[in-house]
Amino acid sequence: MLTKLPEDWQQGRIEHSATLEFYQELASHSPEEIGRFAVDLLADGIHPQVLWDAVFMAVAQLIMSQSSIVMLHATTTVNALNFAYRQAKRGDTRAFLLLQGLSFATMFRNLLRGRERSIRFDTFEPVAPDDRQPLEEIFFDISENRVRAASKVLHYLNNGGSVDQFMRVARSLIVNMNSGSHDYKFAEAAFENYQHISTKWRNRYLSASAFYLNGSEDKPNPVVADFKELLQWSDERHR
Asked: Whose C-alpha in 52, 138, 183, 239 is 20 to 30 A from the C-alpha of 214?
């Protein structure tokens, strides 16, 4: 299959309409079919970033559909493959890693089980927060209603909200409210993926992370809570 690729396959053109079409193809076709579609697009002069964008969108769609530990691993797996792709020097290795990313996205899609949310990555609408402290409202909503929270994140980012502030609050809550190592793994993989998806899709991608991040009303991590209590006790004792 890779023999069809021209020597300059990594120098193609960016077409966001092709990203959207390919993302939609990822929702229904087999890994073999997706691989053939991908090679045809690359051979036709489409830049590989277009395909990576579609993969990032596809795994974001999975965590939006089901906030499960299985769908979490779609994000972390694609993160690892994209990192390897960016580090690889040989063109054939990079092409193989890209196809692996596409294949894993379809594999995880086939692992969806049970009830799925109907919200879609490419069409969900922004909703303005009511509060003058939008991040406080957003992270409260993450605990209460993830669909509403994601829509508010999208509005926040589309209107100049600080990505750094959003990530800072998210990381603080992960430390204090995490239920295990997977909370850390998901957030850092999603935040790194955000840096490597095209600007056009970035706000939507980061907004989708609300479907697995920790919220301000989550149950505190008992180890962290005990440790903070000990620090407070020690501080009071030595005053």
From this structure: 52
Q: Which of 195, 125, 127 is nearest to 167 (CA)?
A: 195
Do 65 and 71 form a contact (C-beta atoms < 8 A)?
yes
Residue 145 phi/psi, 5-degree rounding, is: -160, 100
What distance in Å separates the CA atoms of residue 107 and residue 77, rounded to the nearest whole number?
11
Helix axes 163-177, 134-144, angle to 10 degrees: 40
Instruction: Quickly list H helices, 16-145.
Output: 16-26, 31-43, 48-65, 69-87, 91-109, 134-144
- CB-based contact 67:101 (threshold 8 Å): no
For residue 113, the tally of other CB atoms under 10 A from its CB is 9
Cα 165 to Cα 39, 108, 146, 203: the distances in Å are 39, 31, 19, 14
Q: What is the DSSP letter of 218?
A: S
Cα-based angle 149, 67, 23 (whole degrees, multiple of 5)? 90
Q: For every one of its 239 residues, what pLDDT tens digit does the chain have, with 9 covering 90 and above?
A: 677 788 899 999 999 999 999 999 999 999 999 999 999 999 999 999 999 999 999 999 999 999 999 999 999 999 999 999 999 999 999 999 999 999 999 999 999 988 899 999 999 999 999 978 999 999 999 999 999 999 999 999 999 999 999 999 999 999 999 999 999 999 999 999 999 999 999 999 999 999 999 999 999 887 766 666 666 656 666 66
H/E run at residue 3: none
Cβ–Cβ under 8 Å, residues 204 and 60: yes
